[in-house]
Design brief:
By secondary structure, the chain is α+β, with helices and mostly antiparallel strands. Helices cover 39% and strands 16% of the residues. The protein has 23 helices and 20 strands. It is globular.
């Protein structure tokens, strides 16, 4: 895989006529460091005709270029250093469509989308003129181009809305009642084909503006769990480079996916990256093997303990360190360690004015439980406090004069879990348009996963052949297997091609990093709100729905217990009290009475 590569020694500044005006063309090749500096210049634009960047033909623009400190030579424009500033027959604003361009700060309000970066704030220096010119009014439509985004306001039309949803990186902003999408050359073409907003000349001007900040070419490598022996290569951008791929002997092009496929061979990857670097293109590697190799090791228990102890006062450190170290030695979950340690510190703070922790008596513990009851805390919170006391005085600092078994627990209120009907769950899924968020809902409801199990789920734990999901280190540090829904397996394929996760099934923006629990909780809340469900819905409610709906269909409690990973079947039996399996066979006396009344 070798190609000829000529790097520019200087930048050639050439005077040309472009759209009936004189401009300075900046000609150079294969210098990424120069390209970065040039793109930061104020007013620099890209011409697709000459495949190069250009600036205005005047002294101000020329001196702005000279400030970059790059080597250059003049071609056909030596008079630029002697003549007066040359005026161009253009202005800073351009009439687009039927409306005159106005500064974006005047016509674009602050927009903060829930799950996307807002197209607000100061414009990029390289596209300052671009963001201040584009506003289009066409009948019942309003299209604005500002700060690298298109804002589309349109009266509801089902066909047009469906087309808008197919744009890349598009979302609906409820506060301003506008569709917002990233201003790319692809989206520009789709909007023009759909709405016919601009004339040919206006379209070309917008295209040049977008090219000043959009990457000409991006290359991404990734794989799929059901096609582990293949590597997918996605090449995007308005100036795609595929020459390095053409040099591969075992390549093939997947027309349906619009990307290249090669056999999984780690020896080929460095060659692909090296060839693309010759074009100043950095390859984005999202393959599991390479991402995991470059990922930092997880935080050690020692670091976790140090971070936890920093939260407490120096007088509480001894008790905190004793109980936390002991529990770490017995390999308790970190969540349990934090709760028990905090509980013991609170007990010490309550006891400290009178005596030390080592001097605790049975009466002190009784008084403390009464104190907790007076605070009207939940029974589950009180149970954590009592469990911490029992553990400390039986494992960490055993006392022969203390009978920890005699510590009474609060009487728990018997509550049934909140559940949704299948129609409500379906509504939640249907109103969720983001493919990643929708797949999160699918995964929880189809397999009954806990929130922590979902974010810890790795791609390698999904077995397409056996239709299984292996849950590693669930509650109680136990592994189990759950079924892989046929529908989930199908929708995950589209999700993998779009988001390209490398290690975990659901990752944050950074490859190989877990999705946050708070983000998933927010997704579930928003979906429930959009579906107009009045009750509070959490990820655990969807887990309850999974178990209850299975029991409604006649699945045995023992099977549901295995799928949920419950240690005690008594925990699973709660679903028998909310299932409609037995209720449907019982006729209400009211119905029977009313039937007898009918003639």
């Amino acid at each position: 895989m070798t190609t000829k590569n000529t790097r520019s020694e200087v930048i050639t500044l050439k005077k040309i006529e472009h759209r009936k005006r004189s401009v300075i063309l900046l000609l150079f090749r294969d210098r990424r460091d120069w390209l970065i500096k040039v793109k930061k210049m104020k007013g620099v634009l890209f011409t697709r005709t000459h495949l190069s960047y250009y600036i205005e033909y005047d002294k101000r623009a020329f001196h702005e270029f000279k400030k970059l400190g790059l080597p250059y030579t003049l071609d056909g424009m030596e008079e630029i250093t002697n003549t007066k500033t040359i005026k161009n027959p253009t202005t800073d604003t351009i009439a687009i469509g039927h409306a005159q361009g106005v500064p974006s700060a005047q016509h674009i309000p602050y927009i903060g989308a829930d799950n996307q970066a807002p197209p607000s704030g100061p414009a990029d220096k390289g596209t300052q003129s671009a963001t201040d010119i584009s506003k289009t009014n066409i009948g019942d439509m309003d299209v604005v181009f500002s700060n690298k985004h298109f804002l589309i306001k349109i009266n509801y039309d089902k066909k047009k809305v469906e087309k808008i949803k197919k744009l890349n990186k598009v979302w609906w902003h409820a506060k301003t009642k506008k569709w917002i999408c990233y201003a790319s050359v692809y989206n520009l073409g789709k909007i023009q084909a759909m709405l016919e907003c601009w004339t040919e000349e206006q379209y070309e001007q917008l295209e040049e503006m977008i090219m000043t900040y959009e990457d000409p070419c991006t290359v991404t490598l990734y794989s799929l769990p059901d096609r582990r022996k293949e590597i997918f290569i996605e090449v995007k951008g308005f100036k795609k480079v595929i020459a390095p791929i053409h040099q591969l002997s075992n390549r093939r092009y997947d027309k349906e996916l619009s990307r290249w496929v090669i056999p999984y061979d780690m020896k080929v990857l460095p060659l692909i990256k090296e060839e693309y670097l010759k074009y100043d293109i950095e390859v984005i590697d999202r393959l599991p093997a390479t991402v995991q190799a470059g990922t930092k090791l997880r935080t050690s228990n020692g670091d976790r303990l140090s971070k936890l102890l920093k939260k407490f006062a120096s007088s509480d450190l001894e008790v905190a360190k004793k109980i936390a170290s002991r529990m770490m030695g017995q390999r308790y979950s970190w969540q349990t360690i934090k709760m028990y340690t905090t509980a013991m510190v609170k007990y010490r703070q309550w006891l400290l004015p009178k005596k030390m922790t080592e001097e605790t008596t049975q009466q002190d513990i009784t008084k403390y439980t009464i104190h907790l009851s007076s605070l009207k805390l939940s029974s589950s919170y009180m149970n954590i406090q009592i469990s911490a006391l029992k553990y400390y005085f039986s494992k960490v600092q055993p006392r022969s004069d203390l009978n920890v078994q005699m510590i009474d627990r609060p009487k728990a209120r018997y509550t049934l879990p909140r559940i949704l009907s299948q129609q409500e769950v379906l509504r939640m899924i249907e109103v969720t348009t983001n493919i990643k968020h929708r797949n999160i809902l699918y995964a929880i409801y189809s397999s009954g996963l806990r929130l922590t199990e979902l974010i810890s789920l790795k791609i390698e734990d999904i077995n397409y052949d056996r239709k299984q999901i292996i849950v590693r280190g669930g509650k109680g540090n136990k592994d189990r297997s759950v079924m892989l829904s046929d529908h989930l397996a199908e929708v995950l394929r589209a999700y993998f091609h779009k988001y390209k996760p490398s290690t975990y099934l659901f990752e944050s923006i950074k490859a190989g990093k877990q999705y946050s629990t708070s983000s998933i909780q927010k997704i579930v809340r928003q979906s429930a709100s959009k579906a107009q469900i009045s009750q509070k819905v959490t990820p655990h409610v969807l887990r309850h729905c999974f178990a209850t709906h299975l029991h409604d269909r006649g699945i045995s409690i023992a099977s549901i217990q295995e799928l949920l990973g419950h240690k005690n079947i008594k925990t699973t039996l709660v679903y028998t009290h909310i299932s409609t399996q037995n209720l449907t066979s019982i006729e209400s006396p009211l119905d029977r009475m009313m039937q007898k009344k009918k003639p």
